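[audit] Reproducing an earlier prediction to check determinism. Same input, same settings, fresh worker. If the C-alpha cells differ from the archived copy the diff job will pick it up downstream; this log only records the rerun itself.
[audit] input (81 residues):
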Amino acid sequence: MKGLNVTDKAAALANLNKQARVVNAFIARMAGIDAQIAAEAARRADIAAEEAHIKAEDAFRAVQEAKQRLSELVESGVSNS
C-alpha cells in the first residue's frame, strides 16, 4: 500500500473487510451444512442401531422358542421310551 494516499488505503481496507465478511459468511454456511449432514448421519445411525436391537431381540426370542421346542421333544421322547 506504499504510495497510496489515506483515502485509497481506507478504501482498500474497506474492500478487504467486505471480502473477509463474504468469506466468513461462506465458511459459516458450509459449517452449518456440515452440521446438518452430521446430524442426519447421527439420526440414521440411531435408526440402524434401533433396527439392529429389534433384530437381536427377535433372534433371542427365536432361540428361546427353539430351546423350548427341543426341550419338549426331548421330554416327550423320554416319556415314550
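[audit] rerun output stored. Observation attached for the diff report: The chain has a mean pLDDT of 92.
[audit] end
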